[in-house]
Specification:
Family: Belongs to the glycosyltransferase 2 family.
CATH class: Alpha Beta
Number of strands: 6
Number of domains: 1
Protein name: Glycosyltransferase 2-like domain-containing protein
Organism: Kribbella sancticallisti
CATH superfamily: Spore Coat Polysaccharide Biosynthesis Protein SpsA, Chain A
Strand content: 15-25%
Structural class: alpha/beta
């Protein structure tokens, strides 16, 4: 977590970086705070609850969501933000490109391909990595996001709203 916060700070030096701790049993909050993040707490476990809380709590022009496990290249954060602002996008997805096959759990690549392949025709556009945990969002997207997901099923709803909004993609080494 500390490395992700430090890497984001280097990539986006003027950004306000918030980390949400949702009942972690490790030192997530301590490490994030020591790295310079604003630490916020969500009493309900799960990424869905954290995203819903963050979208409600934070008021910004651009929102960047990145998993804290240091699998995504945080140095590319500025690229995601630039593409979002250049537009005409409401969401830019960091599309994972394998640099290390071991980074994916067994069966994860196949499962993501099946889900992503099924979602594209449903939403009328090509979605190449529906389950990516690295995204930039516009204020309009965030403030209109229904956030119905609860615990850990948050990635599924992102493309749903994309029917009415524009989404861009950027390849990210993973």
């Amino acid at each position: 977590m500390g490395k992700v916060v430090s890497d984001l700070r280097a990539a986006l030096p003027t950004a306000s970086i918030s980390v949400y701790d949702s009942n972690s049993t490790d030192d997530t909050a301590v490490v994030a705070r020591a790295a310079g993040a604003i630490v916020r707490h969500e009493s309900r476990s799960g990424k869905g609850n954290v995203v819903r809380r963050a979208f409600a709590d934070i008021d910004a022009d651009v929102y960047l969501l990145i998993d804290g496990d240091d699998r995504y290249d945080a140095s590319r954060a500025a690229d995601l933000v630039r593409l979002l602002l250049r537009g005409p996008y409401d969401q830019v997805v960091g599309i994972r490109k394998h640099s290390n096959v071991a980074a994916y759990r067994r069966g994860h690549t196949f499962g993501n391909r099946v889900l992503t392949g099924a979602a594209g025709p449903l939403f009328g556009r090509e979605i190449t990595d529906m389950l990516s945990g690295y995204r930039a969002f516009s204020r309009r997207y965030v403030k209109s996001f229904p956030a119905l997901a609860r615990e850990f099923e948050i990635e599924g709803p992102y493309p749903r709203i994309s029917q009415a909004t524009m989404a861009g993609c950027l390849a990210i080494t993973w």
